[in-house]
Amino acid sequence: MTVSVVEVSPRDGLQNEAAIVDTPDKLALITTLAAAGLRRIEAVSFVHPGRVPQMADAEAVAAGLPRARVSWIGLVLNERGLDRALAAAVDEVNVVVVATDTFSHRNQGVDTAAGIAAWARIGARAREAGLRTTVTVAAAFGCPFEGAVSPERVRTVLADCVAAAAPDEVALADTIGVGVPAQVRALAATAATEARGIPLRWHFHNTRNTGYANALTAADLAGATPVALDSSAGGIGGCPFAPAATGNIATEDLLYLLHQSGYDTGVDVETLLPLASRLSTLLGHEVPGQLARAGLFPPA
């Protein structure tokens, strides 16, 4: 059984940190991630530098990416972001549509319907340019402003996104880390009907210590169907526009869980372990990931 792990620490990891990591240090992080065998890496976000200053060097990072074996992903929220992504020659774009109007306004300055319309334009242009596309339904498990998000709401948003522009992949995001496995099962069933035949990707946060249970549930539900799981080295990151949405699931911890559960990821977890200490130094605080402290078992 195989699971694809999508590394998001250079983007979703660093964007919520108070420390601004310089471009050479970002590229050193990215080089280690690629050396470990990660083959899809969300490296940059093409957003307004005034709103997310941690991503102000997106073009410089993109220019320094080691090309070839890795598919490089850029997050875009609007057509200006797509223009920058195309100029930077990323391989994929990830476009976010937020499931609730209030959070969508906080995150992107538009309501959900306008977000879907933007996705339609971006998706069509990206496909014409030969880029792989992902549409992510954010806050699919809960919203920090509107509370619980019903499966019916997610179903409607997901169906509208797919109808607007068929993506190469759909992602469901627990942006604030409130989800539990029962919700994963419900939303997997929703995706199976509303995005039939489209590969599924999941984005979990461990804010309430449910992220790893959710990730394993998603992998188990997929069976032989391709599935991708987002994670962030050291467990760093979160959304700067969602209060208390800290803590992606840590890549090294996720890999340990998947490998010990019989899944093949193609990633060498041992190569990633030194990153926790390096990130702690760069960010000025200990990172949440556990495996670098506890070590592999059985010991190497």
TrEMBL record:
Superkingdom assignment: Bacteria
Key words, A-Z: Lyase, Metal-binding
GO BP terms: ketone body biosynthetic process; L-leucine catabolic process
SUPFAM superfamilies: Aldolase
Gene3D superfamilies xref list: Aldolase class I
Protein name: Hydroxymethylglutaryl-CoA lyase
Domain Pyruvate carboxyltransferase: 3-273
Keyword Lyase: yes
InterPro entries, sorted: Aldolase_TIM (IPR013785), HMGL (IPR043594), PYR_CT (IPR000891)
Gene Ontology molecular function, alphabetical: hydroxymethylglutaryl-CoA lyase activity; metal ion binding
A Pfam short name: HMGL-like
Coiled-coil region(s): none
Record bears the keyword Metal-binding: yes
Family from the record: Belongs to the HMG-CoA lyase family.
